[in-house]
Amino acid sequence: MTVLRLGADQLGQRAAEMADLLADTVNAGASVGFLAPVTREHALDWWRGRADAVAAGQLAVWAALDGAGRAVGTVGLAFPEKPNSRHRAELVKLMVHREARGQGLGRGLLAVAEEAAAADGITLLHLDTETDSPAEHLYRAAGWTRAGIIPDYALDPYGTLRPTTLYFKRVAAPAR
Questions:
Q1: Half-sphere exposure in the Cβ direction for 175 (13 Å, CA)
Q2: Which of 6, 12, 57, 157 could serve as a FRET partner for 22 with CA atoms 20 to 30 Å apart?
Q3: Are 54 and 6 a contacting pair, CB within 8 Å?
Q4: Are strands 59-65 and 71-78 parallel, antiparallel or unpaired?
Q5: Residue 164 in contact with residue 154, Cβ under 8 Å?
Q6: Which among 59, 65, 64 has a CA at the least distance from the CA of 120?
Q7: End-to-end CA distance of the chain, in Å?
């Protein structure tokens, strides 16, 4: 697998592949902010809408490509705009296509995001994920710390209200 950080232009060029990935992920039951079924058109519009945030440096997006060059995984980092928050970022939209699961791709994408954050001077990452989802095992195994659970946080892809678990991880020593 090859993992590429996508600039705004590259994200636009790969928007259709990223849309297929998003639709597959949600339609398979992953809770990443969308309700099933996600149409390709809706997913395509969503990804195209991220290009401005990438161009502005508010969002970093990586795509994992299979041997044929198709995007089969992604992860992002969202950077806060507030001056007192520039030491942290939120890990967002870690997704792996059903056909690519079980090969360590999620763990690899997580490591890429953590390493890039540390290289950029980010010292703290945080995320939320559906409580009791398969993603929780990934984050715990990667050394993330559970901060707590918020009940009735969001609808899962099928419309059921579910709790979310908050996690954080220090990725570099805090600046003194």
A1: 8
A2: 57
A3: yes
A4: antiparallel
A5: yes
A6: 59
A7: 38
* Token representation of residue 137: 């095992």
Q: Which single residue is written with the structure tokens 């997580």? A: 110
pLDDT interval class at 1 (50, 70, 90): confident
Neighbours of 96 (CB within 10 A): 26
- Identify the CA nearest to 159 among candidates 40, 39, 28, 34: 34
| Phi/psi-derived region of residue 96, left when phi > 0, alpha when psi is between -120 and 50, beta in every other case | beta
Helices (H), 28-171: 40-48, 51-55, 105-119, 134-141
Model pTM above 0.85: yes
The number of C-alpha atoms within 13 Å of 136 and in the hemisphere containing its C-beta is 13
Residue 57 CB-half CA count within 13 A: 4
Mean pLDDT value of segment 27-55 = 95
Residues 6+ apart with CB under 8 A from 124: 87, 88, 89, 168, 169, 170, 171, 174
Residue 83 is given by DSSP the state G
| For residue 174, pLDDT beyond 80 | no
The amino acid sitting at 164 is T
Q: Which two tokens stand for residue 10?
A: 């590259």
